[in-house]
Every structure is written in structure tokens, then in C-alpha cells.
Automatic annotation (TrEMBL):
It is an enzyme of class 2 (transferase). This is Glutamine--fructose-6-phosphate aminotransferase [isomerizing]. Residues 41-180, 213-358 form the SIS domain. The active site is at K363. Homodimer. Keywords: Aminotransferase, Cytoplasm, Glutamine amidotransferase, Repeat, Transferase. Its EC number is 2.6.1.16. One of its GO terms (cellular component) is cytosol.
Amino acid sequence: EKGGHEYFMLKEIEEQPEALANTLRGHFRDGRIVLDEQRLSDQDLRDVDKVFVVACGSAYHSGLVAKYAIEHWTRLPVEVELASEFRYRDPVLDRDTLVVAVSQSGETADTLEAVRHARAQKARVLAVCNTNGAQIPRESDAVLYTHAGPEIGVASTKAFLAQIAANYLVGLALAQARGTKYPDEVAREFHELEAMPDAVARVLEKVEDVRALARSLADSKAVLFLGRHVGYPVALEGALKLKELAYMHAEGFAAGELKHGPIALIEPGLPVVVVMPSPRGRAVLHSKLVSNISEIQARGARTIVIAEEGDETVRPFADHLIEVPAVPTLLQPLISTVPLQVLAAEIAKSRGYDVDKPRNLAKSVTVE
Ligand code: M6R
């Protein structure tokens, strides 16, 4: 049941530390990353020369996040593609291509068809799935389960965070097999991941502040989301949550694109959520984003800034500041997404909508 929560989604948001811990558990043994049901040998992983992530919706966003980590750790090219587009073009696939099919339900028709297409072209397919024995893992060469537990809310929350963690495990397993990271580096990355449930728990302590902010945004017509690097897919995910729950016009942009068009949308009172990188980890991007925020604030936007605790440089430009704990850059999406989930759910609630069952949407989309 909802465990005393007003809606399932809030319960599922609060279960995220556990979802992450359960997804990581058991995957580091005797100093090595170990995946689940693997019909891919170490040699298969060594032979991989290209990775595709195929998925829909939030699962697709988890792939966009993972691209930054997998390319960095493995030096393999990673393409992330909407499953519904993948098989209708002519993707270059062969037996050395690893296709990672990410799906909470494991039943999404577009993703399933992408898996079939990839296998017909002899690519190896690894499913990242939250549902035991679902169709997508059944038709894949290997499966890595996210152990987020059943997700009832139509909007994906804990499964999304677990997908990022699982995709990162795939990246680390590839880096380990290929030798692009030393064993101690792989171990360090894993242990940093293991610290994330506590970091997410700290973000959750601020839920009430974010809910109050959300209530003040309920009458807005539109909300824009800006991010860079791993913050960019977080911006896309924040916008998707708001569209599906609050039926508001919401768009995520790469902040570097602002001057190439989106800045024309800025008008007085428009809420703009900015996902900041750490001032330590990505100093150059950080300062570029600070100037973006000052530009949009000068044009009257209402700025809502998610930034690392103690990041004083953003304070003058933030109409609302949501502080999150300092974590390594590649892990930031696991914490910066959380306030955006709460924001969307609470705006939807304030507008009188059913947070768990938004209109026109199904939990799993089993038709193309
Ligand atoms: O079950 P799947 O992970 O394959 O579902 C994919 C999308 O339909 C899903 O993430 C959808 O976008 C969510 N409603 C987003 O919150």
C-alpha cells in the first residue's frame, strides 16, 4: 500500500535509496564487477566495439546519462537511441555491437522490437529490466535486473535511478573486461556508487521545501529545464515528469543551446529550472551556466537552481535554490533528478490531478 503517503509516487520517490542499494547489491565480488544472468563471456565483452542503448521515455534518459560514463570508462562509442526510431532506420550492427535494452516493465513493444531487430543483425543484446522473466529479458542474450521493486506510479522514479545504476554497472563490467580501467579504479567507482543511497536520502530530507516551492508554481503555463553534460538528460527527465503529471508545457534544453533559439522563450515570470554541475568537478561548465542563469534572470525568468551545497556563486541568480550534496560528477543525476520528481508530482497534485494515474498514459506501453 501507499505506506501513509498521499500517492504511490511519493512513496516510490522515498524508496529510491533502497532501490539503488538493492540494484548494486551482490555485483562486486572478489574485487570484480559481476553481472546477473550472463550468457556473454568476458571474451564477448572484450570484443565489443560499439554500444547502443535503446529504450523509451525515462529509460531512454537513463541511457543518455550512462553514455557519459560508459564512453569515459571504456573509450567505446555509445549511441543512445529511442527504441521507436532504432529499427526504422538502418543502424550499423554486427556481432561486436552490444545493444543495451533498458526497460522497467520489460514489455514495452518498441523496445522489444528493437531487441528483435538487433538480434536478427547478430548484435548481442543485454536487457536492463525491473521485472523478472518479462519478454525483453527472455529474448535477450543477457539480463541485468534493477531491483527497484514494483513501480506502481505511471511516472517512473525509483526504476529510473536504478536504471542509471545498472547501466553504470554495464559500463564498469566493460571497462573491467577491456582493461580500460585498472581493477582498483573499477572498485573505487563501484564504492562511489555504493555511497549514493545515503546521498539520495539526504536529498529526500528536503522534500517538504520542494513541495512548498511546487505549490507556488502550480499556476504557471510552462516550465523550462536547462542542464549541461550529465545535467542535460536530467533536464529532459524533469520536463518529461512535468508533462506527464501536470499536463504543463515543459521542455528540457542543453544550456549551451540557449542562444541558438530557446532564449527567445524567456519572458517575465517564466519558471526556469537549472541543473548546475559542481563548481569543483566541471568548473568551466559551471561558470558558463552561471552566466546563462544571470542572462535569463535579467530577462525576468523565475530561476529555480539545483546546485551543490555551499556553491555560493549561484546564490545571487537563484530566485529559489535547492541544495544537493556534493557527489562525483557522473553520479550527480542520481541526486539532481530527485527534486524534479517531487516538483512534478506536487505541481500535479496542486492542480488537482491524479499523480499515480495521469490521463492518457499506461504504465507499460505494449503497442507500438
Ligand atoms: O517499462 P519501460 O521502462 O520500457 O517504459 C518506458 C517508458 O514508457 C516510461 O519510462 C515512461 O516514459 C514513463 N511513464 C516515464 O515516467
